[in-house]
Amino acid sequence: MGDVAIRVEHLSKRYDIGRALTRHDTLRDHLMHSARTLFRRNSRASKVAPFWALQDVSFEVRHGELVGIVGANGAGKSTLLKILSRITPPTAGQAEIFGRVGSLLEVGSGFHSELTGRENVYLQGVLLGMAKSEIDAKFDEIVAFAEVDQFLDTPVKRYSSGMYVRLAFAVAAHLDPEILLIDEVLAVGDATYQRRCVERMSQLTSNGKTVLFVSHNMDLIPRLCQRAILLKHGRIHSAGPASEIVEEYLGGQITDANTTDLLQKPRYGDGRARFTSLEVIDAAGRAKGTHTSGDDLLLRIGIEAFEPVSDAAIAVALHNLSGTRLITSWTREASFPVSLQPGAHIFECCLRQLRLRPGHSVTVGLWMESKGTFMDHIDVAQMVNVVDGHGTRHLSTASSQGILLCDYVWSGGPTESAPTPERSLPSITCQP
Amino acid sequence: MSSGTATLSPTGAPARPTALIRASRGLFQIDFQALWQFRELLYFFVWRDLKVRYKQTAIGAAWALLQPLMTMVIFSVVFGRFAKIPSDGFPYPIFAYAALLPWYYFAQAVNNCAVSLVGDAGLVRKVYFPRLILPLAAVLRPIVDMLLSLLILLGMMVWFGIVPTWRLFLLPLFLLQASLTALGAGLWLTALNVRYRDVGYTIPFLVQAWMFASPVVYSLNLVPAEWRLLYSLNPMVGVIEGFRWALLGTASPAMGPIFMSLAAVLSLVFGGILFFNRMERSFADVI
User: Residue B9 has what pLDDT?
Assistant: First the structure.
């Protein structure tokens, strides 16, 4: 405990995108290209544009720490984990690792769909570096965690996607490494599964394990991790306490948050459908960028589907800038059925009488899933400034004063001469 | 806050790192320690492929027996009966089958080996393990099929009244040479296949051409004596002649061609490993 578990020194990784773009997938292309460059001497130099996925990254992680890595897509998070897992070598620099490493970059990547659950547990376990005897010993525990005991001898191709990821994570979670590298495994599966993953991960660290955790989930990072590293364009932008780093990361997204073109946003999902626009509108349907505290917050969401999806669900969540979730609004909870056809859709969500403290901004995140699989997710689809439009008497806008607002009255005094409390409150101005 | 480096915690006083990850690697460097650590994975890959194949096919293991058997029948009719190719005084069917045994093994091994990395691209991209394990498993797996076919051959020997001798126990040596040849060729092919998918299309042709360059349907004696040494550069010549010698008791192959074969197979494997190691660094990025 307290010793260094991972030491990364000046780690860099270069991809030659010029070469990647003209990637010669067939020998003929390669020969043609070679022939062409033979005659045009400089063309090669002009074509190969190096892209630094990681540049001069250095940090240390001690044993027993849970460190989050955040950053936009393409910031180098996954590349970093790939290098530390020894899947791809760095171009320069080095990393030292002290302890047995287990890495989980993708759930179920070792699974074979024809094999049964039981067979896949062994295959996956051995792939992650466990000995067969070790898997024998932990087998029951793994199966219990995954809750697939009746289907153990069914080929995993017949599993639901939820069962599939549960089983895969169960194996990895019972791998007994000193250092665990995890990339976004929580992006799949249903809420129960995610909660158990999180429990398991915090349990691991309380047992002294070291965890390096890449995630887009800005709720989770401050809850799970003590520290976080923010990567930006392959470099370490900042590092420190997780909540501060998340706040900085989300704050940095404000600048591009007001473009309503969601197609440019960092996102993940299987792409069967995607969010195309998000507008904050007033009662007359006009777009606006602010929310008046106490009013209804009306969101108009544009969605483009590429195939018919029945049993879909859409969720909207508001976060403040320190990453705390304020509100979730979910079509399933509202029992509003969503089924998508190929083409464009418009949905509207009304958050009634939303009483947030004025003077702050909140982020709107969007989720869309079907049967436990994410189709699209955008962390910060829109920033909304909360303004005061009702002459609220509580003027402090400091976030230390809380994030919610309500009308309140006080009464009372010395007990001997206490007047009857006045309980009639002013009526609330905002009506649906 | 923005700086190139960020120290999360003060430097402790650590012991030797269990893993050191850096850019430079030697030209010929196999991580034997890692290979040993993952030896069970080798077994599980072989087991997985066998299992999957038998699950997906209706008659499972029978395919492994039928293919060389049917080929033997065809060869016996075409080359033995019609073309009347001499077979060193043995009945043509058993003469051909003794060669088809190592040949089918070799053809399968090369084929599996060549597609081993691409076939498990998902793993190569997302999971760390010594990459060499995939081609190794691909070469080991068809041995199971070959052993099944060997049982048929032993039955045929009883039928034709050929008594096996002590030489049968030297068979594993020739099998080893066949494995090494397949591995040597397969390492080149699988590493190339990661970058150029053309390789997948050339393999059937390559294997067929290689078969006619090996004494499968004909005897080594048909090759003009002055060409034999050069001919023996093909390692499968030594393997097939060795199989016939060990199983049927044909004339023992000359020492010259044997050493020629051995030298060829060793340089093929050595070169294959060098090439594979060189390419290995970019597998995850390119595949």
Answer: 37
pLDDT recorded at residue B14? 41
Residue B55 banded pLDDT, cuts 50, 70, 90:
confident
Q: Residues B239, B177: contact at Cβ < 8 Å?
A: yes
Q: What is the pLDDT of residue B184?
A: 94
Chain B environment of A239 (Cβ under 8 Å): 6-8
> Among the listed ranges A232-241, A256-265, A412-421, B84-93, which one has the minimum average pLDDT value?
A256-265
Element of type H or E holding B143: helix B142-160
- The answer to whether A100 contacts B18, with C-beta atoms less than 8 Å apart, is yes
Closest residue in chain A to residue B12, using alpha carbons only: A3
Q: Is B201 on the interface with A (CB under 8 A)?
A: no
Per DSSP, the three-state class of A26 is coil
pLDDT for res A1: 47
Q: Is A26 on the interface with B (CB under 8 A)?
A: yes
Mean of the per-residue pLDDT values of chain A: 79
Q: Domain boundaries in chain A?
A: 4-252, 259-387
Which helix or strand (DSSP H or E) is residue A47 part of? Answer: helix A43-47
Chain B segment 33-52 residues within 8 A of A by beta carbon are: 37-38, 40-41, 44, 48, 51-52
Look at residue A159 and give its three-state secondary structure: coil
Q: Name every chain B residue with its beta carbon within 8 A of the beta carbon of A19.
A: none
Question: Which of A62, A88, A133, A214 has the most B C-beta neighbours within 10 Å, making it the best mutation to test the interface with B?
Answer: A88
- Written as six digits, the tokens of B206 are 């390559």
Pick from B17, B124, B197: CB nearest A26: B197
Gyration radius (Cα) of chain B, Å? 23
pTM above threshold 0.90: no
pLDDT at A27: 61
A432: pLDDT strictly greater than 50: no
Residue B240 and residue B96 in contact, taking contact as beta carbons nearer than 8 Å: no
Average pLDDT rounded to a whole number, residues B152-163: 88
**Cα–Cα distance, A207 to A199 (Å, whole number):** 12
Q: Give me the residues paired with residue A317 across strands.
A: A328, A365
What is the amino acid identity at position A229?
Answer: I
Mean pLDDT of chain B: 84
Q: B286 CB near a chain A CB, below 8 Å? A: yes
Q: Does A326 touch chain B (CB under 8 A)?
A: no
Average pLDDT over residues B120-137: 89
CB–CB contact B198 A82 (8 Å): no
A4-252 CATH, one of 3.40.50.300, 3.40.1390.10, 3.40.50.720, 3.90.180.10: 3.40.50.300
Inter-chain CB proximity B23 and A60 less than 8 Å: no
Q: What is the CATH number of domain A259-387?
A: 2.70.50.60
Q: Which residue of B has its CA nearest to A93?
A: B22
Torsion angle, CA of A144/A150/A156/A159, rounded to 10 degrees? Answer: -100
Q: Where are the domains of chain B?
A: 34-286
| Segment 108-127 of chain A within 8 Å of chain B by CB | 109-110, 112, 114-115, 119, 122-123, 126-127
Which residues on chain B are in Cβ contact (under 8 Å) with A126?
Answer: 38, 40-41, 44
Provide the number of CB pairs (under 8 Å) joining chain A to chain B.
169
Distances (CA, A) of A342 to A40, A274, A381: 47, 11, 22
